[in-house]
Amino acid sequence: MFVRVDFNVPLRDGKVSETHRIEAALPTLRRVSAQAKKTIVASHLGRPGGKRLTESSLAPVRDILSRLLATPVLLAPDCIGVEVEALVHDPRQPGVILLENLRFHRGEEDNDPDFAQALASLAEVYVNDAFGTAHRAHASTAGMVKFFREKGAGFLFKKEVDYLSRLLSAPERPLVALLGGAKVSDKIGVLRNLIPKVDGLLIGGALAYTFLKAKGISVGKSLVEEDHVPLAAELIAQAERLEVPLLLPVDHVTAQGVQGDQGPVIVEDSIPLDRMGLDIGPKTVIQFTQEVGKAKMVLWNGPLGMFEVERFSHGTRAVALALTRGNAISIIAGGDTVAAAHEAGVEERISHLSTGGGATLEFLEGKKLPGVAALEGPD
Ligand code: 3PG
């Protein structure tokens, strides 16, 4: 069986520094390897752009995977070709074979039909568990699927689609969305699609300053996407029209710069010209945690401050804790937000930690993802 996973994980000093995506694929890999003679695991790592780059090898991932599955995992020297075929058909080789980085071949990102067919020739059954890559129409997520009669979604892929579809089409109410992070530009589609669906929208992080500016509130040196100020005003107007409460921070943890020696200062309403907002303030924390506490379903994407710096991490941490206090179904999306949940020690109590970055955002924008469409087959 061929299993497409998303093991595009961060590496530090040649080692995997964050294993969430690998762990999330284990239920599928365990099930497949219990059933199939050979489990062929395929992923990309980074963006090597069709070149064989040592630093993009899946070797560090093989080590972790082998440990987590408690079984030997063979790293194939490539992902297609005679040598790989020979390994796949050799009964003396381990049952789990991890193909080398798919993106060492241009054919992967180009969705080249010959490359797709070469991958497909390695197995009789196709399983896609790479939800994090479902927004890419690549050979391993889209092109190769048509070569299989037997195909389907893995447990992780299905869980992601189930949670996110439920949020968009049949949520528990009140449904509250909490959006943070750095850029409005990354979240426009999501905001547009979510405003008509949610019962409340809370905006924090650097994202909030563009919105505050749109409301005519002075934000000092805070990060603002000037180009997007009119769009933020439009989104505020959309929420007003639909009578959806849109909450912005009412106070801020500010500093003269990220590095400065001086302690942070709490500022209410407008931020002085020489200061920048780096976290939501204590009053906002109370408001946001109360709103989260009333919700039956919460989506959280994007940290609410510069949480990687201790003195600006309080708001993010407080909201992470609030998410797990009630019985709400909680969905966390985005690498930084998952990391924040991990920091706050609440990971285990979140209903669903999405493994998708771009894929989750595009799903929440209401787009049909190519990886999802390929499994459903031609219309
Ligand atoms: C991700 O990490 O978002 C996915 O693995 C997709 O990676 P890409 O943005 O390089 O296509």
Fraction of residues in H or I helices: 25-40%
Biggest sheet strand order reads 5-6-4-1-7-8
Return the structural class: alpha/beta
Number of strands: 17
| CATH second-level architecture of the largest domain | 3-Layer(aba) Sandwich
What is the percentage of strand-forming residues? 15-25%
Per DSSP, the total helix count is 15
Describe the structure.
With 379 residues, the chain is of the alpha/beta class. The protein folds into two domains: 2-156, Rossmann fold, CATH 3.40.50.1260; 163-364, Phosphoglycerate kinase, N-terminal domain (Rossmann fold, 3-Layer(aba) Sandwich), CATH 3.40.50.1260. It contains 15 helices and 17 strands. It has helices at 20-24, 26-35, 59-69, 82-89, 106-109, 113-120, 155-169, 188-194, 207-214, 229-241, 282-294, 314-323, 335-343, 358-364, 370-376; strands spanning 2-4, 11-12, 15-16, 39-42, 73-75, 96-98, 125-128, 150-153, 175-179, 200-203, 246-247, 251-255, 265-268, 276-280, 297-301, 329-333, 352-353. The strands form four sheets. A six-stranded parallel β-sheet has the order 5-6-4-1-7-8. A six-stranded parallel β-sheet has the order 11-10-9-15-16-17, with helices on both faces. It has a three-stranded antiparallel β-sheet with strand order 13-12-14. The chain starts with a strand and ends with a helix. The relative contact order is 0.12. Bound molecules: 3-phosphoglyceric acid (3PG).
